[in-house]
Amino acid sequence: MAPAPSRATSSIRTIPTAVHMLLLLLLFVFCHHHVHFACVAKELEVTDEWQVVGENDTVPAGVHVRIDLSTGEKWVKLAINDDSDNEIDKDKKETATTTTSSSLLAVVNEDGSVDMQSQESSSAASSTTSSTNNYDFDMMHRTLSKLPDEEKNRMGGLPQLPQATETTKVTPEERKAFEERMLEIWIRRQEELASLQDQLMDLPAILRERIIAIDDYLKDPPHSLAKVDLDVELPEGVVTHIVSVLDDLQFQVSDIDMARDFHTMGGWPLLVSLLSDNAHVAVNTTIDGQSPTTQAKIRRIQALAAETMGTSVKNTGEFFPFAVESIVIDNGKRVTTAIDILIEVFCRRNHSDDWESRILLSKSIYAIGAMLRGNRLAQTYVFQQGGLEQLGQVYKSLSSKDHFSSATVKLVMRLSSLVSDILEDLQLHPELGDSATTKTIIDALTSKDWCDATQQAITSETYLPIKVQESILHSVATMGPYCQWGEADIKKIHASIERMKVEWMHDQDSFDMEHWEQLQRLAATAFAATEKKNESCGKMSN
C-alpha cells in the first residue's frame, strides 16, 4: 500500500468550498497585515473584461473569478461565455518590454466547479529585472511579502530589498545575493504549487484506496490483522495496514468535501461494518475468544472506525441522515444503522477494563454525540428505538458508587455533556420539531435513570477534575427543572455544589479570573435550577 500524501496538503480540495476559503484568504491577507488590521471594502463594478481585484475590493456573487496562485492577484469578469478566457486584460500589455512566465490559476466557474489551469501571463519588466535571468525580483519580493508571516518563516524568511540612499549605493554583490535568494524561494514556491496541483487531482484516488483497503480487510480479516503491529508507530502519512488506513481516513474526512465524497463513493457502509464483532472473526467464534493481541488489534480498528464516523458527521447538518440510513452488514445477514451499532457497542462493553476497550468506549460515545447533537432526525429515531433509555441505564451504572472511578470519569463526563447539550438545543430551537416529539425526547432524557445518574455523579466522593465538575454542573442546571429529585437528593446536590465552591476558593490563585467567575455563575445556576423544580417547572407540559 503506497504512502499517503503529506497531511499538510492532502485535505486541500478541487471543489468549491476549499477554493472559496482560499479566495477569502487571498482577498483579506493584504488587509490583515496593514495598520490597525482593518480596511474599508467596496464592491467592485464587474464588466465583461478581466480586471484585477484591488486590495479593498469585494467581489459580487455570480462572477467568474481567476486567482494567480503564484502572485496572489485576483481577476474577475462577468460570468458569460467568452472564448478569450485565456487572456488577461489586454490593457495591461502596453509596455514594450515584457517577460513571460507560467503561473498556476484556480478558476471558479459559474456553476461552482473549479479548474486548475496553467496560465501564460505577461507583466511589465521592472528596471531592476536581471537581464540575465529575465526575472522581476522586485515583483517577486512584493508578492511574497504579502504571504502570512508563518509561511514566510517556513521558507527561511525573505531577504531585505536592497535600496540605495542619498549616501549609499547598492553594490553588485548585495544585489546578486538578494536575487539569488529570491530566485531560490521563487523556484521552491513554483515546485510546491506544481506538487499541490498533482495532489489536488489525486485526492479522489486517495479515498478510493482507503475504501478498497477496508473492503480487502473485511474479505480476509486474519490475513490483514497479521500485518498489524500496534507497538510500531508509523511515520506520519505512511499507510501500510488497516489501522494506518483508518487513522489516515479519520484525518481525510475531517474535510467536509472529503467526507461527502467518501459517503458518495460507498465507503460509509464498509466503515459501519467494522463496528460489528462478526466482521472480524469466523462464524461461531467471538472476539473475546481470540488472543489478547488479536483482541487489542480489533478493538483499535473498531475505535478508529467509530472516531472516523463521528468526525465525518460532526457539526454538519447535510450529513445528519448518515446516522440513521439503513446499512446491510455481516454478509447480508443484518440490517442496522450507524447510530444503532454505536449504541450497541457502547452499551455492551461499558464495563470493560482493558485499555483498547476503554478507547473504543470513548470513541463510540464521541461518535454518538456527534450524530445526536443538533440532529432532531437521529434524536427522534434513537428515542423510538429505545436508545436513549439504554444510554441512560449505562450512565446510571457508570456513575454509581460501584463503578464511578478514574477509569470511567471521562465517559460520565461525555454522557452528562451530551444530555445537557441536547436539552439546551431542544429548548432553544423548538421550531425544529413538533412539540409532542420535543416533549417525548425531553422526558426520555430526564427519566429516572438519567436524573439519578447526574445526581450520583455530582454527589460522588470520587475526585472530579474541574472540567468534569463543569460538565456535571451544567447537566444539573439543565436537567434540574425536569428531574423529580426528592428533598434529600436536592440537599445532597446543594452540599456538593457548596463543597466545590469551597475548593475553588481555596485554589483561586490557580484559576484564570474569568474562568473562576464563570464557575461561580454556573454553580449558582445549578443551585437555583434544583430549587425551582419544586415550584412549577416539573416535566414539560403540553
TrEMBL record:
GO terms for cellular component: endoplasmic reticulum. Residues 113-138 are annotated as: Disordered. Keywords: Signal. One of its GO terms (molecular function) is adenyl-nucleotide exchange factor activity. It comes from the Eukaryota. The keyword DNA-binding does not apply. Residues 1-37 form the signal peptide. Residues 121-132 have a biased composition (Low complexity). This is Nucleotide exchange factor SIL1. It comes from Nitzschia inconspicua.
